[in-house]
Design goal:
It is a single chain. The chain has 268 residues and is an alpha+beta fold. It has six helices and nine strands. It is elongated, with a radius of gyration of 43 Å.
Length: 268
């Protein structure tokens, strides 16, 4: 963003310095002269701007005009609670919303963080914007919290587990896969020889079939035998039926002719 101006502003943003009230692993600590509590020597910076009319009027917002809301760049590591705690020392915070600032040409994982901080009173916004840039705020650091180089080291180590941990994960995944394969095989064997609703007999590859199960399936198939299932069978059945009707008609016609010819009584 460039070098801050003497007034504590840069590119229209108010520069608000802060530091953590304690440092992890004893690194970077120094003694404060007022109460002797340890504090980090490293100073970090927030960049703040009144959001004003640019703030989206969200449904149910207590600050529709944005006069009580600050837009924040470079928020502290952690959650919205850390940002609320840091600025809460200046004024009561009503709401904090964190977001990633979309930048074209960069993947989403590399978008810089930002946020909106809404205060109870507009005077709190003015107090931060008018604050002396030479006096940093202090943010209490929770115990067992890493930041800076230690945080990066922890993320690096977590992304690259040791060979023993990796082997344990591989073994667990393979055991889960083997269990799924065994369950699927057992289900196929159990359904071998079964007849579905359409009359198809299910056949499973591998494994032995219980003779009782096979006999039961054959009996069920015999009891539920489907006739004229295929289309060509229906056509053949219709042809046979028409041919049978024609033969019967020809036989009846022949019988009628024979009966007429056999009449002995012929009226004059």
């Amino acid at each position: 963003m460039g070098k801050p101006k003497p007034s504590g502003t840069i590119s229209g943003y108010k520069v608000v310095p802060y530091r953590y009230a304690a440092a992890p692993s004893g690194a970077g600590k120094r003694k404060r002269e007022d109460d002797g509590r340890p504090a980090t020597a490293a100073v970090r910076y927030l960049y703040c701007k009144m959001h004003g009319a640019k703030k989206k009027k969200e449904k149910g917002s207590k600050d529709p005009e944005g006069k009580k809301t600050l837009f924040i760049l470079n928020p502290p590591v952690g959650s919205a609670m850390a940002l609320a705690t840091l600025l809460g020392s200046v004024g009561e915070v009503a709401d904090v919303q964190m977001k990633k600032l979309e930048q074209s040409g960069r993947p989403a994982s590399q978008w810089p963080p930002g946020g909106y901080v809404e205060f109870r009173k507009a005077a709190s916004v003015r107090a931060i914007l008018d604050r002396d840039a030479s006096k940093p705020l202090e943010l209490p650091l929770p115990e067992n919290t890493d930041f800076g180089l230690e945080r990066w080291q922890a993320e690096y180590d977590a992304a690259r587990p040791s060979a023993e941990v990796l082997q344990q994960q591989v073994d667990a995944d393979l055991a889960t896969f083997d269990d799924e394969v065994q369950r699927g095989r057992a289900q196929r064997i159990a359904s071998h020889g079964a007849v579905d609703e359409d009359g198809w007999v299910q056949v499973a590859r591998g494994g032995k079939v219980d003779p009782a199960t096979g006999a039961k399936a054959k009996k069920k198939q015999k009891d539920k035998e489907l006739k004229n299932f295929y289309r060509f069978q229906l056509k053949e059945a219709k042809k046979d039926q028409v041919a049978t009707m024609r033969r019967k008609f020809d036989l009846d016609k022949q019988k009628i002719q024979e009966m007429r010819a056999a009449r002995k009584f012929r009226p004059s």
